[in-house]
Design a protein that fits this description.
Layout: H1 16-30, H2 40-48, E1 79-81, E2 96-101, E3 107-112, E4 116-121, E5 129-134, E6 142-145, E7 151-155, E8 162-166, E9 171-175, E10 189-191, E11 197-201, E12 206-211, E13 217-222, E14 227-232, E15 238-243, E16 247-252, E17 257-263, E18 270-275, E19 281-286, E20 291-295, E21 306-308, E22 317-320, E23 326-330, E24 338-342, E25 347-348, E26 362-367, E27 373-378, E28 383-388
Antiparallel strand pairs: 1-28, 2-3, 3-4, 4-5, 6-7, 7-8, 8-9, 10-11, 11-12, 12-13, 14-15, 15-16, 16-17, 18-19, 19-20, 20-21, 22-23, 23-24, 24-25, 26-27, 27-28
Length: about 400
Amino acid sequence: MKRAWRDEDDETDSSKQYKKLLHQKYVGIVGKPKWAKITAKDSEKVLSNNDEDLDLLKYSGNLARTKKGVNLAKGLIGIKKLHNLNLSTSTCGKIVKTVEFHPTSSLALIAGISGRASIVQVDGFNNEKLQSIKFQKFAIDCAHFTVDGKQFIAGSRTQRNFYCYDLLEGKSMFIPVHHSIGQTKMDNFCMSPDGKLIASSGKYGEIHLFTAKSKEWITTLKMNGTVNALTFNSDGKRMYSFGENGEIYEWDMNSRLCIKKFMDDGCLQGSSLAVSGDDQYLAAGSSSGVVNLYKLPCDVNPKPEKTILNLVTTVTKLSFNKSSDILAMASNQKNDAVKLLHVPSKTVFSNFPTTSDNVGKVNCIDFSPNGGYLGLSNNKAEALLYRLTHFQNY
């Protein structure tokens, strides 16, 4: 397979020695052959770089708390703007479509319509670029790390084929998809949390399933209307799909059958979905800007526990943090259309974003594995980085 390593940012330093140095630095962070795990010590090292004024490291926190026994409070959220994630690499294009934190190491993936994807080290100051990959004639609309963090998958709305990049080997693999399965694009896909599947939305209500290991097509599921959103529960045994008819489908991934479907309350057209990490809630966003929060498991005709009306344009992105006490909601159709919901109280934090944040039109939202960071990508060539001060660990 053809390597996709050449980076215009590095033209002046394109010698083999420089590339070897970058690779050694990368391996030093993520580990080889066994990938680095985030420990409390690692988290403190990363976070202490940008929180000297917060004295956070005095507390013996766990995954979701800074002070033992202190829950996240509603009303105002402790949030601090840091240097952009793409500070050291600005070649993902004017529209940055993806920002995603690595599942086990302090790294982030940034990708955009220029066809370039970058891996950066997350420290809040330099956010140093470790790798940058250019996929020729391939505008990246969606990209995700594999569950084990060893690869990332990149897809585009202009092609049914996709790419897989091996981080340690520095190799890109072109994954051809046969026209007979009916897939026409790869701009809306997700990875199952059990590491087994890639689910991609197709045309005419089709959902194409591929193996995450070999990237081979397995089967195609079918729902009514166009599929606009897909998500899995925490163990990958259930998948939820949502589309233009406003119906939410629940799929059993062992039998590959729809076991339940229901109309999203008051919805004309479904646009986004997310399941909380504790499997307690399903969030559904619609074209009217409404987000409904359902308690799981849902019955046949469920009513939302909470309806959030803070957005007024199509909800294009929903994301829970790992501890399931924050739900991020965004629309890419209006500037600064992003809100953070305090899940326990079902109220929106009033201090984000402020008028000075100027976040633009948000395309993607992601929380770092243990909640310490929030990343946003927008239409201004930015991958924004924020520190959530309640959470001690990365």
